[in-house]
Amino acid sequence: MNISVDIKGLEEARRSIERMERNVKAIRGTHEVTISELLTPEFLRKHSRFASVEDLMIAGGFMAKSEALTRERFKAIPDKALDEFVSKETNFPDWKAMIGAAAGEYARRRMLDGI
After folding, report:
1. Which end of the chain is more exposed for a tag (fewer CB within 10 A), N or C?
2. How far apart are CA 89 and CA 107, in angstroms?
3. Is residue 78 part of a domain?
4. 48-97 per-position pLDDT tens digit
5. Whole-number average pLDDT of the chain
């Protein structure tokens, strides 16, 4: 005995897969990404008590509230001090692990963009 089944939604699924393929091609390779694009408020709230990159840097004593977080200011932060602060104030052992996890989430967001 055969049963007829009407499967719906396959066209939408096909479009979503095609969109994901385009997104993957777009993010392949090396990209310049700002620290704020990686360390989103959602990511920081999930892994720390901070709501922004600026809050994190201010709490670590790496910048004052009145200062902007520039590339130069960030590069001037000693690696050891940043690693120690990240280890103490987040659920990551060091800065490299934190950025690695953030990059993975960034790639996932970009891959699923528009889906």
Report:
1. N
2. 24
3. yes
4. 999 999 999 999 999 999 999 888 999 999 999 999 999 999 999 999 99
5. 91
Domain membership of residue 27 (yes or no) is no
pLDDT confidence tier of residue 19, bands split at 50, 70 and 90: confident
Enclosing domain of residue 85: 33-111
Distance between CA atoms of residues 114 and 95, nearest Å: 30
Distances (CA, A) of 44 to 36, 38, 65, 83: 10, 10, 18, 16
Its pTM stands at 0.80
Q: Which two tokens stand for residue 56?
A: 């994190």
Distance CA 54, CA 22 (A): 33
Give the total number of structural domains in the chain: 1
The answer to whether residue 91 is domain-embedded is: yes
H helices of 1-115, where?
Answer: 10-27, 35-38, 41-47, 53-59, 71-75, 79-89, 95-111
Closest CA to 74 of 94, 53, 98, 59: 53
